[in-house]
Amino acid sequence: MPDLPSELIAQRYCCGSLCNPRSPVHRYAMLFFICLMSFGSYFCYDNPAALQDAFLTDLNLSVAQFMNLYAFYSWPNVILSFIGGLFIDRVIGIRWGAILFSSIIFFGQCLFSLGSFLSSVYLMYFARFVFGVGGESLSVAQNAYATAWYPPNELNFVFGLSLSVARIGSTVNMNTMRPLYKAMGSAFHLTGGKRMAATLLVASVTCLFSIGCAISLAFFYRRYVKARLESLLSVETSGESSQEAAAPQEEVIQLKDILHFPPPIWLICIICVAYYVTVFPLISLGLVFFKRKYGLDPAHAAALNSLVFIVSAVASPIVGAAIDFFGYNLTWVTVGIAMAATCHACFAFTAALPSPFLLMLCLGLSYSILASSLWPLVGVVLPQHQRATAYGLVQSVQNLGLGLASFLAGYIVDTKGYMVLEMFFLMCNAFALLATVLLFLWDVKNGRRLNSAHTRTKATPVKPEEEAEVGGGGGGSGGGEDEEEEDAPPTSSDTAPLVS
């Protein structure tokens, strides 16, 4: 798509390329809002973990009740992530979807604070449920924004940077909530549930920041779509009247379309679940594991357990940029899974060497490689009007797998020990490798579009009418003249979809 000449940019936009909606400078400036849109969600998600002892003492919670604060977040999203993605694709669009779900996380966090104030565990459960509805669906909207705004050869860096910011949010939470909790007590002389409620309410400010990012993105994305359509209409040579050229040709996903998702989507689901269940359950149970196996004190065990997230926060954008430069996403996916399998094999069958710090560093790098190379493939395989639904589907399957794996991992440790747990992780890694091999075979049969440095850019195109629909809502909820002028037919430069 041709960019406007530089002299026209100077005339139309006060800040030149920075204000030109279709310039690379403007596009990468939008990464600030895309990445930070979910900062509040990741920051507030682990508020209970950062204040675990305070939750148990101030609110008189049992350990089981405390763990339910996470269960009420995760289990509903086995279904609700998928529904949220479908809702974005069919009804409300990316722009309003991001605003809605960022508002829901703010409302859920405020309810959580109110539940603490009233010392009502059931209100706190409901609040975490509401927060989960917004948090997971906001991640779906974030992924949909990324695949709508950035070409496939830039997506790996975008997803890597998003992952990095997410982990920074978790890290900031772990390091600020304790001092904030102490400050609430000393400054305002609060105790018990009131002290906890005030702390959680202050944390909700990060959710307001997410709402601000979502509103800003809605404005800038609408400008981008309008500018692109203006460029399309200016180079229209097919002979149709301008009225015909501007006529909307919306595509909205149907429920039956999900049954016809191509094999790569289902294989991506399998790889995602089979890999992630080897990382997060290990971190959940890592403190005791590192103390028992390596004789570490609690402080060193905790530091070791946090290395995966610290490494991923630093490495993810770098790895993503490297994948964008070299291509070959499936090869990177294979490397990430193989690295994780090697780490788990060492945890299972070696004693002091290699160092557990080195193994956790490698596991963190493996996590960065897989997340940066796997998630963008959804945007390569499917057209824009189906992507939010697909991301919701993958996250729903991931939540289901993590929920089941957490229960199974706890049972294995209680009855069989950590050696058998590591064998379970190795089995999951092998399953992920098998799914990757099948994805390789599909890719070879279908033109090597997922694993080539040159043909990855030939992804399923984002048609102009899809951009307009996804930005304003496929069901007309955005409505009005603004939405109608964002629609336009595909140009002759649009290629055929990747899959039939």
Automatic annotation (TrEMBL):
Protein name according to UniProt: Lysosomal dipeptide transporter MFSD1
Species this protein is from: Mesocestoides corti
Annotated keywords: Lysosome, Membrane, Transmembrane, Transmembrane helix, Transport
Cellular component annotations (GO), alphabetically ordered: lysosomal membrane
Polar residues compositional bias, start-end: 490-500
Region annotation (Disordered) ranges: 453-500
Similarity comment text for this entry: Belongs to the major facilitator superfamily.
Alphabetical list of PROSITE patterns matching this protein: MFS (PS50850)
Purpose of the protein: Lysosomal dipeptide uniporter that selectively exports lysine, arginine or histidine-containing dipeptides with a net positive charge from the lysosome lumen into the cytosol. Could play a role in a specific type of protein O-glycosylation indirectly regulating macrophages migration and tissue invasion. Also essential for liver homeostasis.
Residue ranges constituting the Major facilitator superfamily (MFS) profile domain according to the UniProt record: 30-447
Quaternary data: Homodimer. Interacts with lysosomal protein GLMP (via lumenal domain); the interaction starts while both proteins are still in the endoplasmic reticulum and is required for stabilization of MFSD1 in lysosomes but has no direct effect on its targeting to lysosomes or transporter activity.
Catalytic activity field: L-alpha-aminoacyl-L-lysine(out) = L-alpha-aminoacyl-L-lysine(in); L-alanyl-L-lysine(out) = L-alanyl-L-lysine(in); L-lysyl-glycine(out) = L-lysyl-glycine(in); L-alpha-aminoacyl-L-arginine(out) = L-alpha-aminoacyl-L-arginine(in)
Signal peptide as annotated in the record: none
Membrane topology summary: Multi-pass membrane protein
Mitochondrion keyword on record: no
Record-linked InterPro entries: MFS, MFS_dom, MFS_trans_sf, MFSD1
Superkingdom of source: Eukaryota
Subcellular localization, as worded in the UniProt entry: Lysosome membrane
SUPFAM superfamilies listed in its UniProt record: MFS general substrate transporter (SSF103473)
Keyword flag Metal-binding: no
Matching CDD domains: MFS_MFSD1
Compositionally biased spans, kind Gly residues: 470-479
